[in-house]
Amino acid sequence: TICLWGRRKAANPTTPEFMNHIPNCEEPLLGDTLQHIKEEYVIQRDALEINLEHQLGKGCFGTVHKGVLSVTSGSDVKVAVKALSNQATGWDVKRFLQEAVFMQDINSNFVVRLVGVVVKFSPIYVVMELMERGDLKSFLLTEAGGTLTEMKMVELALEAADGMAYLADKKLVHRDLAARNCMLDTNLTLKIGDFGLTRYLKTDYYKKSDKGFLPVRWMAPESLQNGRYSSRSDVWSYGVLLWEVVSRGALPYQGFAHEVVNVMVISGSRLECPENGPEILKFLMQQCWKGQPKERPEFIQLVRLLLPRASPDYQARFERVSFFHSSSCRDS
Ligand code: ADP
């Protein structure tokens, strides 16, 4: 668990020594973000060994490598280490660490856990639970992904819905739910990852003011049109995620430019339902793509609808680890 590896003695991360040697970073900007990182998540650099030969992937801020974290109270822990590139600007540092801020205290079996951050001197690292089988999109494109059974598709859908139900309950809106941002562990259990665009909802809606790079093909019409995000716009993206699973990693709206997709979705066009695949997933996709956010199901309802379609064995295992079963929502 987090407690095992998280708690190590650390100085206050907002003190000036933490600003040293972090490239191009204005002190108030970094200090402001560091204030939101809890002390128990600060890792000392020498406790971390990074395997530079084992690159897991490349993100928008730098590389992700396999690593090992030594913990005082137990055996070493395998981790994934996201490094911020040396060319990062102050704003990049802020956005990079912002992801870690949102991942703190997440306690769901279907959401990737934050292990900690290394912020004293450059390069700064975000250290996460290692997801051995990588991201779902890459997996779907492999031979193993191409031969996924319908039952396994339902299980993946359940795990994603339960992880998202947990986030929605915490009033977090992910805004970038897609197969590329779901990770798989050794047992091919799915966990929601990449909190780069996540926001905390003060009301039911988060309104985005500037336009950066946007995951247009996964976005709900109200997000495309008015920059409005909510857990129900995450539900829309979840529908596209189901489509990716059933289509085994295909690109949504293949052959159409972003601008065209934007216009199509706003004017009511929808992705074509794949021919094969579990009927329940195809039915749920349609529900997730209702034009009015309120007409879409909530994540907790999606779990309720999917659960009876899983095998009795799987249901018994799911019951022990799901947010759905631990929360009172299951009774409503
Ligand atoms: P960014 O948010 O900067 O784009 P990502 O979080 O998408 O970066 O990470 C890039 C890639 O690194 C992912 O596609 C995945 O293959 C790999 N990766 C990220 N996090 C993990 C993890 N916890 N375990 C294993 N691989 C990971």
Characterization of this structure:
Residues 50-310 form the Protein kinase domain. It is found in: Membrane. It is a single-pass type I membrane protein. This is Molluscan insulin-related peptide receptor-like. It is built from 13 helices and eleven strands. It has helices at 2-6, 27-34, 90-103, 136-140, 143-146, 150-169, 221-226, 231-246, 258-266, 279-288, 299-306, 312-321, 323-326, and strands spanning 48-58, 63-69, 77-83, 114-118, 125-129, 172-173, 182-184, 190-192, 199-200, 206-207, 228-229. Strands 1-2-3-5-4 form a five-stranded antiparallel beta sheet. A two-stranded antiparallel ribbon has the order 6-9. It has a two-stranded antiparallel sheet with strand order 7-8. The longest helix has 20 residues, at 150-169. The chain is globular. The two termini are 30 Å apart. 42% of the residues are buried. Bound molecules: adenosine-5'-diphosphate. Residues 56-61, 64, 80, 112, 128-131, 134-135, 180, 183, 193-194, 196 line the site of adenosine-5'-diphosphate. Adenosine-5'-diphosphate binds at residues 56-61, 64, 80, 112, 128-131, 134-135, 180, 183, 193-194, 196.
